[in-house]
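input
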Amino acid sequence: MREAPSLITLCLDSVKDLILFGDEDISILYQLLPSQIIDGLIPRLPALALLKFEDALPSNYESEDGNGSGTDQRKSKRLEDFDTAWMKLYKSSLPSWITIPKNCSHCRAAYKFENWREQYWNCHIQMCLQWAAAIASNPNFKRSLGEVMIEDSVLKSMGFKKCGCYSEVDFSTVAYHCQHFGLYARCLTLSSVLLQEETSVSGNTKRKLRASFVFINLLHLLRESKLEALEIHDVNSKKQVDGLHKILSQSVKTLVSLRFENCQIPSKLFSKICDSLLAEDRRTHKIKHFRVNSSRSFEAGLPTRVVSFLSSARSLCTVDFCDSNLSRDSAKKVFNELSEASSDIAVLDLSENDITGWLPFLMWKKYSTDELCTLKSLRVLRLRSCNLQLIDAARLNYELFKLTNLKTLNLSDNPIKDDGLERLMPYFSRMANEESASLVNLNLEECQLTGEGVISLLRVLSSSKKPLNSLRIGENNLGSVVGEHLGKYICTGVRELHFNNIGIKSSGFLEAREQLTEGVKLAFINIRENDGGMGAAEFISKLLLSAPGLIKLDASYNALPAEATAMIGSSVKSANGKLRYLDLSGNSLCGGAASREMLKKSVEDKHIEIYWPA
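output
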């Protein structure tokens, strides 16, 4: 039998309805209700009521003693209560399909929400727009986007309810929500269907206006907001670019992050986009993060306006052309322009573009001293899957010496081979000999390296005065010959190591095991797909005892024997370390009921998430 609600619950629900649907001045509630009641009321309020109640908070809230500082403290405490309530609403109502632009992790945030209230409503507007775009994608959709209805379950959870004061207001449409809550928008993802001006209807003017209502409403939304980040998807026509141009022009004073995803915008139209981002002086812009990903806008070459856009930046932090069909010459232009620009670029990503041979053709800088060399601010350089060859590696070695603040270098999936790695060794040797070396993350996966080449690298890195934080050498056919050197390198202080699918086998793991000493600082190791067998099991067992700070271990697909679970369980229990994730998937011999039960019993009080064979 259902338990009857308490008197306090009934009272709080009545106050909630009063806030939502009453016509009175609700600020008086702060005078009439005891503080303890308000404490219990705020966490119970849905979004609409929470917004109204917070907006009604008097400026002189609880100034009973006439002491200004006391009043400020009480109001600050109450605002913290509201912020906590907004945080819980945000986390409980955020759908998994919402796509909100992310900040750059390598520099100051591109955008910052003042509080959880702003973050909640920004997310809500994004949800409304994505919902409308999904509905409008149906070929049978004939209405204005603004007329798309929000789901009843969403409206109900927010506190909307058909009653008295709302009888003449259609609060269920996307248009209503954009008009009333659009001022909170800071970062949005917009698909092409939201950008196109719809004017190709009948000759009736009213119908034309109605068809373009959502685009006009979208412009109104962005005009009211302080939009700082935009992510644009699937734009490929002039009408869509025209709509985007207007939005960008309206947001030029606040916009700092712009990303294009899966767009096919002709070069001439892309130049128009760049023009819309220029400041009033027409010579500079405020964009900090500029990304063009998985797009085919530069097949005919990089437009002149895009090149000048890069050079006219004053605060550009991120330039990302990953998978944008850049040619060798276009990549050269990007690198040269950024080298001469006055902005402090931190991240450059040219991955997934076939730019082999681009570096040897770069012009030698005409600077008299190294102090004038630019790009010193670069902290992340990603050149994954660029088809770089031996000659590129040789030239890159020279350029890397100039990048004195580089922290992350990703050269994965490039056929540089051992000869290319040898050309890069002067740079790695220089980093190894400097106590203040900047490089901390190195990725050389899938570079067609052999054991001989990687052994030379590991010898240099093992002598480093400042160890790397992360090294990735997986997906290279290295063989068991690297086992001893890997074991030595593990003991140098590296925090994250990936040598998955290198063909190290059981003997190589046993040699690595022999080199392990106490105090290993590893936090994450990936040894998957090596068919290490019993050697891998013994290596893992000793590593768990040697690395008390190890948090994640991926040993999947290593042909581990059934005895491995007992060995691992015993080490985990003895080590009393920090292991939280253990991947044993793909090791069929470890998947038996007895093996599982044995390991679970050994780690039952360790809170370890274990991935078992299917």
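quick obs: The chain has 22 helices and 15 strands.
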